[in-house]
Amino acid sequence: MLFWRVKPLDKILETAEKKSLKRQLGATQLTLLGIGAVIGTGIFVLTAEAGQKAGPGMMLAFVIAAVVCALAALAYSELASMVPVSGSAYTYSYGVFGEFTAWVVGWALGLEYGIGAATVCVGWSGYMNGLLAANGMALPAWLQTGYFAGGTFNLLAFLIGVAVTGLLVIGTSKSAKVNAVLVAIKIIALTVFIFLAVPAVKGDNFEPFLPGGWGSPMGGVGVLGAAASIFFAYVGFDAVSTAAEETKNPNRNIPIGLIGSLLVCTVFYLLVGYGAAGSVGAQPILGPNGMPLDPGTPAMAAACVGSEALVCSHEPLAHVMRLLGHNRIGDWIGIAAILALPSVILMMMFGQTRVFFTMSRDGLLPDGLSKVHSKFHTPHVITLITGAVVSVCAALLPVGRLADTSNSGTLLAFAMVSIGVLVLRKTQPNRHRPFRTPFAWIVCPLAVAGCLLLFVNLSMTAKITFVVWAALGLILYGLYGYRRSHLANGTSAS
């Protein structure tokens, strides 16, 4: 069903004009939105998980994940500059491959952004619960973790999801202004961490460098397993493209926002990873078979009881500072994470609402989901629904499995965007391209290969969840979208 019900790019632009969002974001705001979406749980929380899977080799995992994202970002920039409307990879797939593929990609993006937002909610609650406990105000244990993480209901994760939902309903420009402040807090915190941790690096802490090897056929461990997990630390940059319809001069500003935010974040990640692994060590806890234990398992939890190892910490950057004797700075880095992580939740939920908004506008989801608030000019219906689902998932599920599951949807979207660039180069070679992917016939195939490599190395749980989610999506498409599609029926959004 490839190239079936293809929606011409000109038609996509025409549809967007009929029910459009206000253009109010510039290059600086977009770059900050990208940084806000990227720097978050991946570096503040998942650094410990990457260390457990790969040891000091997590440095290579950061590089591998960054390279795959950089290749995909170049492809995203070309398509986003050509089709500056909401919907990200979903919209691009509709204009290149057709409706069926677009639905699959859009549904996968829902998994990326929705589960991603829930992941960050859980990561935020870990820092907040730690701060409350340190000040004698700890919540009951059953309210600190979700049902599937050994507790009952993660109250703080639920509440932060509700709060961000309210902020998104109020308006995009207001959200962007709040996000700029939160980005500044994160940058300051990471800069302080780098300034103190890098000088304390010791060569001995990098031996052995690859205690888990490169990976295993089942995925989930080693450098490639860590790269598949830490990939979550980068993927928020594509949320910039979902804001294309709300961007001033998108042909220029979208590529700047995409590539600029990714470059800034990559530099910070490499320095932070080097400082963490080299200053206090990041050697994994090994099981009876001599391989690293799987993070999030009962065996790993039991091995971490009473341990001060970096790989056991739920707040690794603050933990490194305390191990180096900077207790007060560790506390302040924890506070910075508490203040700043909501910006990542904001951008993840922003991305999902804009994708489903566009799918609704195309008739693949109910029309009511694309209603725009008369006062705030935001898609408030889908925002409220998304916020409710994210908040409930965050209240019940653990962080590590959520991150891997989110990555599975992202990798599919990245691969399809990269293939789409090459297809359009052949089918529409004369179409104006404000930004052209350099060396496209090398860059795009490498991006696809990188996405496949990381997907194979995801945990088995993430792969199974992805298949189940995809099956549910196909059922929904067959029951609703296939028959209600505006493209199929010759209708259009009103």
Automatic annotation (TrEMBL):
Record GO terms (molecular function): amino acid transmembrane transporter activity
Subcellular location: Membrane
Topology relative to the membrane: Multi-pass membrane protein
Pfam families recorded: AA_permease_2 (PF13520)
Residue ranges the record marks as coiled coil: none
Principal location class: membrane
The UniProt record lists the keyword Transport: yes
GO CC, any one term: membrane
Keywords carried by this UniProt record: Membrane, Transmembrane, Transmembrane helix, Transport
TM regions (residue ranges): 27-46, 58-79, 100-127, 147-169, 181-201, 221-244, 256-277, 332-351, 381-403, 409-427, 439-458, 464-482
InterPro entries hit by this protein: AA/rel_permease1 (IPR002293)
Matches recorded under PANTHER family: CATIONIC AMINO ACID TRANSPORTER 4 (PTHR43243:SF4), INNER MEMBRANE TRANSPORTER YGJI-RELATED (PTHR43243)
Listed name of the protein: Amino acid permease
Annotated source species: Pseudoxanthomonas helianthi
